[in-house]
């Protein structure tokens, strides 16, 4: 799936351009073929964002939304997000495929959605609803997530329990080369200590990944907490976790290609996020703000 999504055919998925239109069609077809519905109804999986919303010469674009309705508390929503766009084609004609950024998060969400849907078909679906939110315009300034959160939240923000945001989970950064599987977690304790505790408990029960909180420091000079789509939910007091593998030499370069993904790590990280979402969706009480 990632070899297709991060192929030259998608032309780097720049917001508003032909490659990005191919990307949203690919995501929609996946959900339709797996009988995972849209919350918008019928064949409409796209939340349209007009060109006027963007700054500069950017064409209209779309978020892609899919949805699994909860069995007991359907009005309470867990949002799992990743950005579908990348930076397009360089001035010299090289295509920036964005396999890790954020093809890895995109295919992770699709795999998580399929797992939730299989559980539902088996009669064991989530008690709370799950929104699978693929946002556009991240690379240009978090436009798609801001549009959803600030302009057109399909579900009331007060009913949104948490946002699990996935942005680059397919590679290994220099700090962790040669080591065990790991993830940077950002934001998990900033609004809800309970969310942080649930995340830790799930990891210890099933995975024992190394959770690295370096970038969660309030004084982190990289300011990653403010630089991906979860922030547009956090600013509305929605608890968030940002899952991230750190940067690498291929970040925002044509060399961020699918052959460089660590697929074993990607699969385990995706399973971790699924189990965390599963726990949030099925626990008796929704997690509380501090």
Task: Tell me about this structure.
The protein is of the alpha/beta class and 290 residues long. The chain has a single domain (2-282), classed as Zn peptidases (Aminopeptidase, 3-Layer(aba) Sandwich), CATH 3.40.630.10. The chain is 32% helix and 18% strand. The chain contains 8 helices and 8 strands; from the N terminus they run ααβββαβααββαβαβα. It has helices at 2-5, 18-33, 99-121, 138-141, 143-151, 193-206, 231-234, 263-282; strands at residues 46-49, 61-68, 73-83, 128-135, 160-166, 182-186, 210-212, 240-244. It has an 8-stranded mixed sheet, sandwiched between helices. Helix 6 links the parallel strand 6 and strand 7 (210-212). Helix 3 (99-121) crosses helix 8 and helix 6 crosses helix 8. The longest helix has 23 residues, at 99-121. It is globular. The model has no long low-confidence stretch (mean pLDDT 98).
Question: What's the SSE blueprint?
Answer:
Layout: H1 2-5, H2 18-33, E1 46-49, E2 61-68, E3 73-83, H3 99-121, E4 128-135, H4 138-141, H5 143-151, E5 160-166, E6 182-186, H6 193-206, E7 210-212, H7 231-234, E8 240-244, H8 263-282
Parallel strand pairs: 3-4, 3-5, 5-8, 6-7
Antiparallel strand pairs: 1-2, 2-4, 6-8
Helix pairs in contact: 3-8, 6-8
